[in-house]
Amino acid sequence: MIDFINNIQGKPKHVRVRIFLVIMIIAVILIFILWLNSIKESISTVKNNKGDASSMPTIYESVSASIKDIFKPQSVRLK
């Protein structure tokens, strides 16, 4: 692994940037696949529990709720 890193450090900058972009694209694709799998499992859980898919939130509603939660201030309770 160290030899691989040293080999990359010896490459010209444009090659290092390409390697970085390829690794980042692969990472984003893997995260996206995991996210889609999570949504699929959530949908199947809701369908199994409720039996009525019409009460299930749409993807837009789910994503907008997640975004609202990010910007919503969190209250911290001290004991």
Brief overview:
The protein is an all-alpha fold.
Structural commentary:
- By secondary structure, this protein is mainly alpha-helical.
- 75% of the residues lie in helices and 0% in strands.
- The chain is built from three helices and no strands.
- The protein is elongated.
Task: Name the features.
79 residues, mainly alpha, 75% helix, elongated
Mean pLDDT: 80
Helix/strand order, N-terminal first: HHH
- Stretches where pLDDT is under 50 for at least 5 consecutive residues are none
**N→C terminal distance:** 47 Å
Secondary structure topology:
Elements: H1 2-9, H2 13-50, H3 59-71
